[in-house]
Amino acid sequence: MAEEPTKAGSAGGGDREGDDEQVVNPWEVTAKDGGKIDYDKLIEKFGCQRLDESLVRRVERLTGRPAHVFLRRGVFFAHRDFNEILDVYERGEKFFLYTGRGPSSEALHMGHLVPFMFTKYLQDAFKVPLVIQLTDDEKCMWKNLTVEESKRLARENAKDIIACGFDITRTFIFSDFSYVGGAFYENMVKVAKCVTFNKVVGIFGFTNEDHIGKISFPPVQAVPSFPSSFPHLFSGKDDLRCLIPCAIDQDPYFRMTRDVAPRIGYQKPALIESSFFPALQGETGKMSASDPNSAIYVTDSSKDIKNKVNRYAFSGGQDSIENHRKYGANLEVDIPVKYLGFFLEDDAELDHIKKEYGAGRMLTGEVKKRLVEVLSELVERHRKARALVTDEVVDAFMAVRPLPQMFG
């Protein structure tokens, strides 16, 4: 699965409607005129639905626990058939989760953690199995990495994913280079036969300059949606529904998958989709591996985090204390407030910060100080968890095996 969309890719713009329009696909995310992504327009264009408050309340009622902060604050804001997944669960039936990661970097940044933090919540709340795809083949083709380097990065990234706390009795992690074959490959061929060259160009924006590896890749990411791709897990359960938590840039893959699924006798996967995690420099900036100061990484020390937040996090505060006290902060553009919206658990504290900062009674330095505390605690917790993930633990998660506590 493609990584968090942080910079333009080589595939053109499958969802480009003109040079002045925003572009959102798995390899490129560009707002109109260098501004912010218009998510309402994206929902309309992609044909998904906005995730409303009634669905959030229904999740709380069915699971008997508070909704995750990403759900109640609208980080995950759009869906396809999530209501049907809840119908399935309410009837006492089961489903499975599928998400993934394109391993192209040594360490993950905070944006990469978002879908995994949320997927862990879904696994715990619904007590369902999870498959996690590491698309080392994709990154080998898109990032010009060697096969060996792609496979190495997949294992390194698996350690960060496991450190998020997934239940080994309900989780199967696989890399494409190691797992693709058998029933999985049979499903890839079934999907590939249903998608014309014109169709794949229309969805993904491939050009004549793109090699055929890229054009042939989409079925690889499509078929983990189908339980029959995992006979060691779901034998005889071909009607099991699938829910995919992902960033909304991945939607093109699964529009294709949902179009094909009924034609080959499978259920359409459901999706729950997140907005994009902003760069430190602002929502118009891009997190880039070539600029380590554009993001907070799970390998950053507390000193690194403090330096990055204080020096690079775009502030909505005024240019002087006098003006700030008079006019207050612009919360719409303030990155520290946006980051706290992702990672500060306490709703009352977040509301207090927004109120005081927006009114000018709290200064930028105070907000950044609180963000440094929150991020440092999160990264330190992750670092300690990752230190316990040995190669043997990775092997155990990636072993082709039945899952003993798959449901319930």
Structure in words:
- With 408 residues, this protein is α/β, with parallel strands linked by helices.
- It is 47% helix and 10% strand.
- The chain is built from 20 helices and nine strands.
- A seven-stranded mixed beta sheet has the order 3-4-9-8-5-6-7, sandwiched between helices.
- Strand 1 and strand 2 form a beta hairpin.
- Helix 17 crosses helix 19.
- It is globular.
- The two termini are 27 Å apart.
- 46% of the residues are buried.
- The N terminus is likely disordered.
Spatially, the strands of the biggest sheet line up as: 3-4-9-8-5-6-7
Describe the main β-sheet briefly. Answer: 7 strands, mixed
Radius of gyration: 21 Å
Q: What is the oligomer described by this structure?
A: single chain
Helix and strand sequence: EEHEHHEHEHEHHEHHHHHHEHEHHHHHH
Q: State the distance separating the first and last CA atoms.
A: 27 Å
| Structure classification | alpha/beta
Number of helices: 20
Helix fraction?
Answer: 40-55%
How many strand units? 9
- Low-pLDDT runs of 5+ residues are 2-19
Shape, principal axes of CA atoms? globular
Outline of the structure:
The protein contains 20 helices and nine strands.
Itemize the secondary structure elements and their pairings.
Layout: E1 23-25, E2 28-30, H1 39-46, E3 49-50, H2 53-63, H3 69-72, E4 76-80, H4 82-90, E5 95-101, H5 110-126, E6 130-134, H6 136-142, H7 147-162, E7 171-175, H8 176-179, H9 182-194, H10 197-204, H11 212-216, H12 218-222, H13 231-234, E8 241-247, H14 251-260, E9 270-274, H15 302-312, H16 321-327, H17 335-343, H18 347-358, H19 364-387, H20 391-398
Parallel strand pairs: 5-6, 5-8, 6-7, 8-9
Antiparallel strand pairs: 1-2, 3-4, 4-9
